[in-house]
Specification:
alpha/beta; two-stranded antiparallel sheet; seven-stranded mixed beta sheet; 13 helices
Length: 346
C-alpha cells in the first residue's frame, strides 16, 4: 500500500509539473511568437497560415507566403490581410530581414528554398503528410511537423571535418617534394606565376579562392571566369598538359581543404558565372551547395569530369548528399586514388 501510494503521488506530481511547464511554454509562445514564412501552394499555405494565426499557443506568427499565385507567373497579390505573397529571392531576403523571420514552414518539397532559409539562419519545418514522424506534440493544430536538419548540423559533419584534417594534413606534408617539382616545371615552361587563383562557389553559395598550379595563362580575367574548358588549347605547354592529365594541378587544393574552404569529398566547386547559368537550366543544381564542395566526388569517380553532362553530375552530387556517410567518403577517396593510376584528366 505504501509503494502504491508513493507511486500514485509521484504520478500526480509529475502530471501537475508537466501541466505547469506546458502552460508556461504556451504562455511564452503567445507573448513572444516567432515570425515565420510559409512556403508552398498559396491555397494550402493560406489554410496553414490561418490556423497558425488563430492558435498562437504554438508560438508561430506567419508574416508572408512564398510561392507563385495559382494559375499565374510572377503576379503579386495578398494571400491574407497583411500577408504578402513573395515570388523572388530578393523579396524573401527583404522579408527575412525586415520581419526578423526565425522559422520557415514548407508544405512541399523545395530543396533550394530549404537551403536558402537555412543559410539565413532560419529553423526549417516540413508540415503535413499522412502520419506523424515524431513525438505526439510535434504538430501545429493537427498539421504534423518535422524539423529539417541542415547538413552542417548533422552529427557526421564533425566526423567529415575530422577526416579532412586527418588526411589532408599528412597528404600535404608528404606531397611537398611533388609540389616543388610541379612548381619548378611550371616556372620553367610558363614563366612567373606558378599558382593560379580563381573564385569559386562553396557551401551555401559562399565564394572562396581556389588554388591550382597554372597550366594555361588566360588572355584576361573574363576568359578565366567564363571559358568552360581549356583542354586541347594550343597555348598549353607540355608541362601544363601533363599536370592536367595527371590531375597534379589540383594538389594545392589540399590547402583549401585544411583552411575549411573545401572538403576532400563533395560536389566539385564551380565559378560564379557558370553556377548562375546552370542553376537556371538544371533543376537541383543550386542544392549541391548545401554540403561543402570537394576535391573529388561521386560524379568524378564515375567519369563525370571535364566536358561531360552537367545534369548527370548534378544528379550524382545530390545523390551523394542525400545518402552521405563517412564510409562513402572513404570509398570515394580509395576510388580516386585508384583512378590516378589510369588518369584521364579534364
Amino acid at each position: 500500500l505504501r509503494l502504491c501510494g508513493a507511486y500514485a503521488v509521484h504520478v500526480g506530481v509529475a502530471a501537475v509539473l508537466r501541466a505547469v511547464l506546458l502552460a508556461r511554454g504556451r504562455r511564452i509562445a503567445r507573448e513572444r511568437p516567432r515570425s515565420a514564412l510559409v512556403v508552398g501552394p498559396p491555397t494550402a499555405a493560406r489554410r496553414f497560415a490561418a490556423a497558425a494565426l488563430q492558435h498562437p499557443e504554438y508560438g508561430m506568427r506567419p508574416v508572408g507566403v512564398v510561392g507563385l499565385p495559382d494559375g499565374t507567373v510572377g503576379e503579386q497579390r495578398p494571400v491574407e490581410p497583411g500577408l504578402p505573397l513573395l515570388t523572388t529571392a530578393e523579396e524573401i531576403r527583404r522579408a527575412v530581414i525586415q520581419n526578423t523571420v526565425r522559422e520557415a514552414v514548407f508544405l512541399g518539397d523545395e530543396p533550394e528554398l530549404v537551403t536558402l532559409f537555412q543559410h539565413y539562419g532560419c529553423v526549417t519545418w516540413r508540415v503535413g503528410g499522412e502520419r506523424y514522424e515524431g513525438p505526439m506534440g510535434e504538430h501545429v493544430w493537427g498539421y504534423a511537423r518535422r524539423r529539417l536538419i541542415p547538413v552542417t548540423e548533422r552529427r557526421g559533419a564533425l566526423a567529415k571535418r575530422a577526416l579532412d584534417i586527418a588526411l589532408a594534413g599528412p597528404a600535404l606534408a608528404l606531397a611537398l617534394p611533388v609540389l616543388a617539382v610541379c612548381a619548378l616545371a611550371v616556372r620553367l615552361s610558363d614563366g612567373p606565376g606558378v599558382l593560379f587563383r580563381q573564385e569559386r562557389v562553396g557551401q551555401h553559395g559562399r565564394h572562396f579562392t581556389l588554388l591550382k598550379f597554372r597550366t594555361l595563362r588566360p588572355s584576361d580575367e573574363t576568359e578565366s571566369a567564363t571559358r568552360w574548358n581549356v583542354a586541347g588549347d594550343r597555348r598549353m605547354s607540355a608541362a601544363g598538359g601533363f599536370l592536367r592529365k595527371s590531375s597534379l594541378d589540383e594538389l594545392p587544393q589540399l590547402w583549401n581543404v585544411l583552411r575549411g574552404d573545401m572538403s576532400l569529398v563533395g560536389p566539385r566547386p564551380e565559378r560564379p558565372y557558370f553556377v548562375a547559368q546552370f542553376s537556371k537550366i538544371h533543376t537541383g543544381y543550386a542544392t549541391r551547395h548545401r554540403m561543402p564542395v570537394g576535391l573529388t566526388g561521386l560524379a568524378q569517380v564515375n567519369g563525370l569530369r571535364g566536358d561531360t553532362s552537367i545534369e548527370d553530375r548534378c544528379r550524382f552530387d545530390n545523390h551523394y548528399i542525400d545518402h552521405w556517410s563517412l564510409w562513402q567518403d572513404v570509398c570515394i577517396l580509395v576510388r580516386t586514388a585508384a583512378g590516378l593510376v589510369r588518369p584521364t584528366g579534364s
